[in-house]
Please model this.
Amino acid sequence: MSPPTALPRLDTLLALAAPGAHAVADIGYDHGLLLLRLGRADPHVRLYGVEVQPGRADALRTRWPVQVQDLGARLTLLEGDGLEVLPAGAVDTVVIAGLSDRSIVRILERSRERLRGLRRLVLCPSRVEATLRPALPRLGLRTVEERIACERGKTWDVIAAEPGAPLAAATPAEERWGPLLVARRDPALRLHLEHLSRVYAPAFAHDLGGHRDAAGALSPLGEKLAMLPELRARAAGWDDAPVEARVDD
Model:
């Protein structure tokens, strides 16, 4: 059996993590599909998989025996939580995908000192994020690329961040929804906004009441959602072709 190939979200993670990487860690590797893709894309890259759930390493070797054998000593599977179990200085690139934005932030905060020695982090929360982008500047990280991955009717933020001073966003909405996505008028962001408008339609119908505390103050997610209608109206006028947007070194 071969791993599935038509997985746009993994393709997006690969595109942002692989170029220039010498050693990549996938935190929470689950079924190991990203590790296998990374190994196939670059025959020289070292791979580390970290998984908190016991038995994942054996499950990976059992499910994909040929692929794991092909990777040989390039692949190291570790059991633990976050970046702490990685050998010091072993990797230059870290991928964290499939966890909530709060879980990703907690992992990064625990390993703040290690972040400085990384070339790049690629982050993909499992749900719409509300705390990850605001946390990056205080962790000494700046966003260098953003994508929206679309797969099977769902959309995900994929954020590439590197150590460095953050760039200033023009508006709070751009800062919360993706300054680089907005700057290049990315059509995928427009689809993302339309999708989330449908998902959260019941919440908007009740004035985001489910995202307010007892005093009526909006939660971080509620604050972000409150910006969605205006940004969606703005995005409706974008052309299908995105404007080139990049971060200068």
